[in-house]
Each structure stands twice: as structure tokens, then as C-alpha cells.
Design a protein that fits this description.
Blueprint (H helix, E strand, L loop, with lengths): L1 H8 L23 H25 L10 H17 L13 H10 L4 H23 L2 H27 L7 H23 L3
Helix pairs in contact: 3-5, 3-7, 6-7
Amino acid sequence: FHHRHVLKSWGLWTQVLPLNENLKFTLIESTDCFTNVWESLKKYIKPLTEFVITLFKGKREKINMDVYHYLFICDFLIFVILFAKFDSFVPPDEATDVSEYFRLQQSRKFTLSYVMFLIAQFLLILIDRVLYLRKHLNGKIVFDIVQIVVFHVLIFLIHPLSTNRYFKESLFPQLTFIIKSTYFAISSYIIRFGYP
């Protein structure tokens, strides 16, 4: 039915009529289908562009409640999970447990992916702190959008491919996802009401 509706809206669907000798045919020139598609898409694009403009330039209610420490707690908990249960986030051949961590610490050998994960999480905490101290709300919006996209690609695409474990089978990535979702909810509060 959708296909028929689209063809009718573009003027490409014709009713089947019985052949009649006295029937007159009218030839209609074809219309550019891309123009019709663009006109149809405008009604969906316009609210999206208005939302983005309001997001970056809209007036915000000011509430003097500082929730940055909750963001820091969420990021710090993710850092602790990465530190303690890193074997849930890497392929089995690179896995290290907490007991192996201390052995590796004595021998000063760390896997590259372990170090990269810890540095990346530390940089996320650092960037978030800089944006908070500068009270740069537009930077926070862009940072969160990029962080949402990258986090979801990592947790739902790259993690299962690299570890050969499904997301639903890995407890600590699920816990990380819940904590990061809480982080994004608190962050949306900051975006909605601005920094104190």
C-alpha cells in the first residue's frame, strides 16, 4: 500500500480502466520525481532544523543546581570498571584479570589496548571538566553528540566483533552502558538548563 501511495503522490499510478472505443486519452507530461520527494522531505527536515537551532541558540531556564559531580562519578565508575575488569572489553588473547594486573604491573607490561582505553576514558573526563570550567554549553552539546555516536558504535559494533562476545553476554559492558546512559541523562539536564 505504501508503494501505491508513493506512486499516486508522484502521479505515476494510474487506474486500470476497461478499454472503450469512445474513451478519450489525455497525455500528461511526466513530472520530476525528485522535486516531489524534496517537497515531501521538507516537512520532516524543518522541525529537525528548528530543534537544532533552538538547541544551540535557545533561551534556557537558569537553575542554580550543580550536577557536574554526578557526571564525574559516572565517568569515574567507568574508569574503575575499565581498570578492574578490562578483560571484558578486549579479545581473549589480550585479557588481563586483576590478579594478572598486579603481576603485569611488577613486570611493567601492559597491552596497548588496555592503555588506550584508560587514556581515552581519562581524556573524556578531562575534556568534560574543561567544558564545565569554561561553561561552554555549545561545546558540551557537540561533545555529547560525538560521544553518543562513538560510544554506541564501540559498544554495539566494535566490541562484539573484537571480543567475539555478544553485548548481552557481557556483564561489565552492560554495566558500562547503564552508567554511560545515566551520564547522558545528567548531561541532558545540563544542556536543558545550562551551567550554574
